Automatic annotation (TrEMBL):
This is Uncharacterized protein. It comes from Streptomyces justiciae.
Length: 129
């Protein structure tokens, strides 16, 4: 699969991830309004919850761009290394890019598994006989 197609599909997957976040925020706002209506019963001067309390346009737009970038990068890396093939796989990698990158950050190298984690410089290592 071409790298440009992988890039676009991964970014599309990342944007789907952002849309899921917007959906979750919208559902939380809707539930808060329902709770307000049940609890208020026409009493009190408090206004109902505003959508702006659940959705912050600038940070949410930045998060969407970050998700798209992560999705694009992951789809290209997985696609060009032969680990995925096909449109659906590239979209799925784009959607799941944050989780994939988190898992990759936790992968222990073979050397670390055998010898233990690296020791920071300036730390004295004592070997007990």
């Amino acid at each position: 699969m071409d790298a440009w197609l992988l890039l676009v599909l991964g970014a599309a997957g990342g944007s789907l991830r952002a849309l899921v976040d917007v959906y979750n925020q919208t559902m939380a706002w809707q539930e808060a309004r329902r709770e307000y209506r049940r609890a208020a019963d026409g009493e009190g001067d408090d206004p109902p919850p505003r959508f702006g309390d659940y959705f912050d346009p600038i940070p949410d737009a930045v998060a969407a761009l970050v998700h798209m970038g992560m999705g694009a990068a992951c789809a290209v890396l997985f696609g060009l290394s032969g680990q995925i093939s096909g449109v659906y796989a590239a979209l799925v990698v784009g959607v799941s890019a944050p989780a994939l990158l988190t898992q990759l950050g936790r992968v222990q190298t073979v050397g670390e598994a055998v010898t233990g984690p690296p020791v920071p410089q300036g730390t004295e290592v004592r070997v007990e006989p």
